Amino acid sequence: MQDTVQNLLAQADIQIDGDRSWDIHVHNPQFYHRVLTAGSLGLGESYMDGWWDCQALDQCLSKMLRTGLPEKVIPLREKIHVLVAKVINQQRRARAFEVGERHYDIGNDLYEKMLDTRMVYSCGYWKQAATLDQAQEAKLDLICRKVQLQPGMRVLDIGCGWGSFAKYAAEQYQAEVVGVTVSKEQQELANRLCRGLPVDIILQDYRGLRPETNGRFDAIVSVGMFEHVGYKNYPDFFRVVDACLQSEGLFLLHTMGVNKTVYSGDPWINTYIFPGGTLPSMKQLGEATDGLLMLEDWHSFGADYVRTLLAWRDNFRASWHVLRERYDERFRRMWEYYLSSFAAGFEARRIQLWQIVLSKNRPPGYQSVR
Predict the structure, then answer these.
(1) How far apart are CA 317 and CA 319, in angstroms?
(2) Helix 31-48 and helix 76-87: axis angle, to 10°?
(3) Is residue 370 part of a domain?
(4) Would you tell me the crossing angle of helices 282-289 and 234-244 to the nearest 10 degrees?
């Protein structure tokens, strides 16, 4: 088994116990069996357990992805995982709050240390930014300009996180914002951060939004939430947007995406980071909006997510001396693997980052903003 793994890694120019930063160092010989029998899940779990290390983990994983190694080791359990996802709606309404409880509620202290001062948990916009704070503020302003925000407009933020966009839109554009989240921790902190502003943060699944109870909005945004919707629910998501959007309003979707249609997420990511997480393809988004909403703009800037993720990882590492009082060593390795693997996905162009502007019944003439 060692020879098989060694030969696979060689295809990606990775050596075992080599002296380059992306080479891996194996500490437990059971690593080889675990990877070959459990695929990506085994690779991630064995790293969490300290069975192997790598100085430049993101570079190592990027090389694996660029060479297509994940497709060369697909154990039976992964094939079953995909089949189940095709049959069962893993993001059904009964499980709507699971990702909030398992990921976003693990501790505001972690996210306060890792993120920027505004606590934006999505890709920054680094076009003219030198720091994470600047990149995230630039991204928030970019969104406001793309939906043509004006004072007094009423805005819906689906998946509002800790209220970063809501707070920015209310303070900088004098907008009235309703934010929706499935995380109790996010709701509590967002309400505190937005105190005194025309911002209302609701603990609710997006499927519960109704124009008769929530009203209609001049603009709608969803930033870094669509990855939790699930392909079986894409049409329902856009129907909710259509129902809640004013006739001439704009909707901005900020989401990760993939080049090829998939029906489930990575097994390791689904198990330890984002339960039920799945990234959409261009085909799936097109089919879900077909006959419902009109495309105004499609902006791709996935390279900015590499820089964002590595900045989060740097912040996490720099704060570990404080965070270790609450989180253990296995969590540290899990979290670094998570941030590094996503950075690798964007670096290898396996994952994309899109900002898509859609409209309902708007006159022609929308001008793209960059």
Answers:
(1) 5
(2) 60
(3) no
(4) 50
SS3 (DSSP) at 355: strand
What the block records as the tokens of 165 is 């966009």
Count: domains in the chain: 2
Residues 225 and 168 occupy one common structural domain: yes
> Does residue 343 belong to any structural domain of this protein?
yes
Length of the chain: 370
Torsion, Cα 30 32 33 35, to 10 degrees, reads 120
Q: How far is CA 231 from CA 30, 132, 206, 283, in A?
A: 36, 31, 15, 11
The domain boundary, picked from 30, 46, 74, lies at: 74
10-residue stretch averages of pLDDT, the chain, 370 residues long: 94 97 98 95 97 98 96 78 73 81 92 98 98 98 98 98 98 98 96 97 96 96 97 97 97 98 93 95 97 97 98 98 97 98 98 97 94
Backbone φ, ψ for residue 239 (5° rounding): -65, -35
**Chain-centre distance of CA 152, in angstroms?**
30
From residue 18, how far is each of 22, 26, 35, 42, 298 by CA, in Å? 9, 10, 19, 22, 42
Q: How far apart are CA 214 and CA 194, in angstroms?
A: 19
Closest CA to 74 of 30, 121, 42: 42
Q: Residue 330 belongs to what domain range?
A: 93-359
CATH number of 104's domain: 3.40.50.150
